[in-house]
From TrEMBL:
Ranges of compositional bias, category Low complexity: 29-45
Protein's name in the database: ABC transporter substrate-binding protein
Region (Disordered) location: 26-45
Pfam families: SBP_bac_1
Residues annotated as signal peptide: 1-25
Taxonomic superkingdom: Bacteria
């Protein structure tokens, strides 16, 4: 296939670069990548091992992941991995159902909700495999530590990520509007009003994303607050009320779509976004999604930083692990599962195949080697990461699910459909946070 022919030169370059980085790597129990890449950590038995792996995402992600699975199976012929994947909006519920029935796959890709499962004891602590099946000593601690909880390692970071505003550069340019390089929330509102007026009927400046936990977290961080402040609620009901009131104001001014349109779009991916339908010009998303959004439209897209705090001027951004690969505590073959998890982040050919689909590689060596192969949208993503996200603060403490799960979204919809005032919704969200962190 042409893809593999194109990849070959970079794979060789990656192999040489990774082999040469051992002398400069940290010397700790995590070791260096060359042992896993060369296969010295291979399974010592010829026993046939059958694993299952699950993840969320589109067909492109599935194709890339299955290529890596095939590559791994060729290197370790006694191991086979059956794959399962599904859309993001149904993935979390599926995992919960499988966990409840003890029928979950061996290898599970998770987001920050891994902490809920780790706390319940249903994920494998990967620490005993570090230095053997798993090699992480050459990675920065800031890239590995988000997968740790209570001194144990439960997930391997599959790629760095961060948040930003994906915007339709062509649409905004055709409207005759200049997009400022940086805005606070007041300036964003003014820009939104001007843009919506220029775009005309049926077009809106932004998507309604009042339901997104990450966006609300950003808003709070800009004020020195957070969702989860070391196990305690880090905001007040009025903070949430102010958040909902701002979006209600956007809605009334025609900056964002009416409730009926917004309710029909999940705004979690390119497949479910008003931006890719040409209805809105800007959405708040993770930077690794830019290529998928770009592939879905003819217009040129780009990235800009989200609005800053009105008074503080803080951006509130953080370095966000894209996804984690975790292992079920019910797996009969945790050693082999750990070997594959390591393969995903260390094998030169595997990292070349996966590229930046799940985020920017946690290896600077891999990032540099990948750059010559990147598309225009991928280059924009890398530049945004290096210029903005790489300099951001550590990731905030994640909010456990529990009563919080869906609370912000439900309250946001009540406000959008005039079933609750911003103050009522703010109180509802705060009480859900209290119950979750009690």
């Amino acid at each position: 296939m042409p893809f593999f022919k194109k990849a070959g030169g970079v794979v060789i370059a990656l192999s040489l670069l990774l082999a040469g980085c051992g002398a400069n790597s940290k010397e700790n129990s995590g070791g260096s990548p060359e042992s896993s890449a060369s296969g010295s950590a291979a399974t010592s038995s010829n026993e046939k091992v059958n694993l299952r792996m699950t993840w969320w995402g589109n067909q492109k992600r599935a194709d890339l992941t299955m290529q890596v699975i095939e590559l791994f199976e060729n290197k370790y012929p006694n191991v086979s991995i059956a794959s399962e994947f599904m859309a993001q909006d149904v993935y979390a519920d599926k995992i919960k159902t499988q966990m409840a029935g003890r029928s979950e796959p061996d290898l599970i890709v998770m987001g920050n909700d891994y902490i809920d499962y780790a706390a319940r004891g249903v994920l494998v602590d990967l620490t005993p495999y570090v230095g053997n099946e798993i090699q992480i000593g050459h990675f920065e601690d800031s890239f590995i530590n988000p997968g740790r909880m209570d001194g144990k390692l439960f997930g391997l970071n599959l790629g760095n990520n961060g948040v930003g505003l994906i915007y339709n550069k062509t649409m905004i340019g055709d409207a005759g509007i200049s997009l400022p390089e940086s805005m606070d929330w007041v300036q964003l509102e003014e820009f939104g009003k001007e843009l919506a007026a220029k775009l005309g009927k049926g077009k809106y400046a932004f998507a309604d994303q009042s339901s997104l936990n990450e966006y609300f977290e950003l808003y709070l961080r800009q004020q020195g607050k957070s969702l989860n402040a070391d196990g305690k609620v880090g905001f007040e009901p009025q903070d949430a009320a102010n958040w909902f009131a701002m979006w209600e104001r956007f809605r009334k001014q025609g900056i964002i779509p009416p409730a009926e349109i917004s309710a029909a779009h999940v705004e979690l991916s390119a497949e479910t976004s008003t931006l890719t339908e040409g209805v809105t010009a800007m959405v708040f998303r993770y930077l690794n999604q830019l290529p998928a959004f770009q592939d879905a439209v003819q217009d040129e897209l780009d990235l800009i930083t989200p609005p800053k705090g009105d008074e503080s001027g803080k951006d509130g951004l953080w370095l966000h692990p894209g996804q984690y690969i975790t292992i079920s505590a019910n797996s009969k073959y945790p050693k082999e599962a750990a070997l594959f998890a390591n393969f995903m982040i260390n094998d030169p050919e595997a990292t070349q195949i996966l590229g930046s689909d799940r985020g920017i590689s946690i290896s600077s060596t891999v990032r540099e080697a990948l750059k010559p192969t990147l598309s225009a949208s991928q280059l924009k993503m890398f530049e945004y990461f290096e210029n903005v996200i790489a300099k951001a603060d550590p990731m905030p403490k994640a909010m456990p699910t529990g009563d919080w799960n869906g609370a912000l979204g439900k309250a946001a919809m009540k406000v959008a459909f005039a079933k609750a005032t911003p103050e009522e919704a703010g109180k509802e969200v705060y009480e859900a946070a209290l119950k979750t962190l009690k």
